[in-house]
User: What shape does this take?
Amino acid sequence: MTHNPRYPLKHLSIRVPWHDNKWNGTICNNPQANGACLVLKNCALNRDDEKEQLLAGKSIENLEEENFPVCIGERATFMAPFSFTRTLKHPYAKSSPESHGHLKPTTVNFPAYSGAAVPYHWLLKGNAMEKAEVFDLNFDLNREPRLSWAKNGNDNWVQETENQRALLNCFFEHLEEDTSLVFFYTKQMPFVEESGRVLAGVGRINKIIPSGQYEGSNKRFGASYWEHMIMHSIREHHKDGFLLPYHEAINYQKENPSFDVADLVVIVPGDKQFEFSYASEHVSNDSAIRVLLDCVKSLEKAQELGIGENNSFSIKWIHDEIAKLEKLRGHYPGMGAALCAFGIEKGHFVAAEIINKLKDENENPWKLFEKVLDSPEGILSDRINELIPYIAKKLYKRLKEKSKPVRIKYLHLLSRFDLSIEQAKTLFVQEEREKIGVNRKDEEYLRNPYLIYEDLRQTLNPVSLNTIDLGLFLKVAENNLLPDQLLLEDPYDLNRIRALTIQQLEYASLQGHTLLPRKELIKKIRDLAITPPCEINSDYYELAEESFDLDIVNEEMKNGEVAYQLARYRETRTIISQNVSERIQAKRHSIKVNWKELLNKALAEHTEGDPDEQEKRAREEKAIALREIAENRFSVLIGPAGTGKTTLLTILAGHEEIESNGVLFLAPTGKARVRMEEVARNIKVTAKTLAQFLIPFGRYNGEIQQYKLSEQYCEGTYQTVILDEASMLTEEMLATTLDCLKGVKRFILVGDHRQLPPIGAGRPFLDIIHHLRPNQIESQFPRIGRGYAELNIKRRQGGAKREDIQLAEWFSGEPLEPGADSIINHLINTPNTEYLRIEHWENESDFEKLFNAILVDELKMSSIEDVETFNKSLGSSDGRYFNFREAVKKVESWQILSPVREKIYGVRAINRKIHKQFRKDKVEYARTKFSKIPLPIGLEEIVYGDKVINLVNSKRNAVWPSVNSINYIANGEIGTVIGQFKTSKMKFPGRPKNTEIEFTTQKGFKYTFKGYEFAEEGNNPLELAYALTVHKAQGSEFGKVFIVIPNPCFLLSREMIYTALTRQKDKVILLLQGNSFDIKELASPTKSDALKRMTNLFEKPELVEIEGEYLEKNLIQQATDGKMLRSKSELLIYQRLLDKKLNPLYEKKLVIKEVEKLPDFTIENDNTGEIYYWEHCGMLFDAEYKKRWDEKYQWYIENNILPYEQGGGENGTLIVTEDKPSKVEGGETKGSISMKEIDIIIEKVFAR
Assistant: This one.
């Protein structure tokens, strides 16, 4: 095929599935482990795992077609060095025999080194009619056949051969053999967790072989197969194209576990994702340049590490191709979009014909366009000239003739950038700009074109900064460049530095930071894959600060270093810090109430006999906490699951005075909102998700999920506001909520700060806690301070003695009890108890076997084939039916959690495995003629009885009953597919059409979902939920929890492990790769996500580098030698031992008779051979704490490690110190360390 000069030259993207053997014409080496290819519909629905596993690694060259893997149809063989044939069958030949029955199976040749390109987006009828109009194609809807099964007109694809040819020819005539590039990409790779398009390789299009007609096509009706064979130039030598070295990187990681393969990944820019969608699409010159620049960075990293071969050839090839692309793009790649924005509906056609008439690269297409306005002869064909309305011609001339033709100059400026029509219209049409809240004049964009990126960066149609760069930095510019010879040559242009700074601060906010040190920004900008590079330094930055205006503000690190912050985060900081500080210092409320009495009354029905001592302490703790949060204008209520936070809040909200003045309960998730509603059902409380509450006040944009400030307020309605799951709040979420509410007497933030920090910027809950937390509160009971209430006594069945709770404490970041190390021994010696079970696996095949065995055992199934018992575990009454208002009660009785979505132990593969095992019969039945349940929906074939999770916040009117329904489902709500189930009373013909789901958060209501909502390229509203990521499970609670912990796993953090270990009510089962001791490493502060975030909510950031990670010093206890300790008391002792030159070892493992202990400090005297073990006890006045210490102390004695007062023992000398208890104002008991006593002991024992 040849390029049609009517069309602008494009490049091509082709989607392929992930293949573990480099797409070389073989079946995957381990097909079952390839979960990444299952994001493609064909693979998800039709892959035969067992069959492919038997043929693993075999070349299809030696296989019969019946044994080909399903991924052949998804271009998984584009690097096959041989040709093969495949039989294509028209999908409607059987379903519509009247129109398609004569079309016969057709044998098609797939050449070596080729991929079959199918532009699905163009072949959808709705899009086809638009393309036909835009490109003036010979397309006639009347030629389309009427399908027997589509009487309601729901046949979406173009069928008739002439219509197909018109569309396919147009699509492929945008390409030029030997010039256009082809980009192979995947929707998912096993080592990439983020969503997006992942580049696999790039080559040149050598030849395009058009598709043909199906055999049997005739004059009455014919149809073409859509596959055009794209023969490409990629070979192993990489001299004319390349594959990125992902497979080599996977092998490299096996020898270097600390290496993350994702570091080499090239993700297609988000604003260009459409060009890499629908299996095959056009790619613009600018997009090609941007992707290739990212490839250079990836290949340079690979070359530095010695990963892959011929990387230098690939890098040279890329640079050569970029030079060609820069010439191909011209100076006005957005001229067509600009003309459309100006009002010429088919402006891109006009632009294409004008550009094709240019004699050389120095001729300006806008000058030619202006000639056309007067006389089109010889320039435009009559057909194209007719596309320019008379009024548009008149308007252009009028604007051009103005003394200051700003509008025309701005139009010319927009044409310099590779914009979509939507982007061009938003930018050019002033009213469209105002709709998205941008009130800027055209002159401002002319002075600083980078404002285009800045203004649209938080909208539905963002324009990349790289797009602006490519339009402003031209290698060879024409003499009459428009507008006004606007051209940048200086990579240090101040406006560019400003925009790059904003870009990097936006990226940083996605990682949780609200500011960055200038030196870090310099490093990031210098490392960007941009052209020209910006090798910035602090001198340039000081100069650039004058251009920052009000969008970037100067801040300071603790050490005086300059830092920069987006202005909106200074605003959120001001709102939060001012609210907290002023409210904490304000006069307390006076409420005359006996909280202890109210507490006892509320708990009476749950108490048999007299409360035990631990229960009395728990109630004492809660009563004082109630008083604190009731009397303060701002407070935090913190504590892990099982400490009674919800009970306490119910008592508070039910107090007559508080309830009558309005109580608003807010939560970031629907789960938390409903949990509070259920507990406080007899109290007048308004409960909403944050998004639900903020939308009416213009403070939440659901389209882009953005929390923002506004001038609308909720005034005087609520005097008490409770924000639950506060650890999930970003600074913007909290700030706009605080700012929105007026007339509030008490704000209460509730949650467990040890859980995962928010997805987004900041860690406000943790920062507020650190700001309010009294010094050395860890040795106080109860832990109460001004505006600070911490619950610690766990009263869930089994209490603090539960092994699962003890294990979770390891990852809390809090000081551990003296006997906490016993849990590790427990894991080794008693791996399966009432509350905790740990099982080990070494590799992926081990995991599969172990998973099946554990699932069968824990769910009490007779075997993995026991579908009936499995169904009953999820709420089925009889093992078959999932009844409305009944099944949903048990759907959360167990849950599988994994930190990752990909790989065989990830969420996607586990859900598929369970679904294939236990829903196979339902899927098959749903497809039968007489089915009483709807067809399966989506790639995962969601069907009756499935456990699902909702993925987007959305309003839904299709709910029954409609009375009292909230018509809203929040992201993260879990439910059961309970219908539609056709009963004998239902008289409609055929099977049910709708899928009905009852969610645990809205029991008694069933929401309807339609099959069309589940598109392969779209964002599906639901997915299977037998397994969830830990992030998705935050805020939820389940009966039994299975936690998969792979090793290595770069996503695992201390907070993630803690969150996972606190989701269960009954039992947790750990499936751990490696041994039990490996998991302890994740308890280190260096594995904390929250500590790595840079924020300045109350204090200037002070970073310390530890083991290659930068942590917030204000949030850790660190000695002068860099050692991190758990508590202030431990730090004081350790530092004193250091100062005395005693070289203490912190928590060094001590093993005697196969029992492991971790003494606080070990001191070894090399000269005498003596060993001293120093234990410091913070809360011996707590009975539970003392009991555990006594057990550890007894172990020392039994193993001949005796106190120094007794002269020591054979195996060492024990030193025990403690925080001395004393009563403080308010009745609390507080422990305090005596450094004088520590010095006396050091002098006495060590003579130092």
Notes: The radius of gyration is 33 Å. Residues 1142 and 1210 are 21 Å apart (CA to CA). Residues 1116-1247 form a domain with the Trna Endonuclease; Chain: A, domain 1 fold (CATH 3.40.1350). The chain has six domains: 11-16+78-181+190-327, 330-482, 490-586, 588-784, 805-1083, 1116-1247.
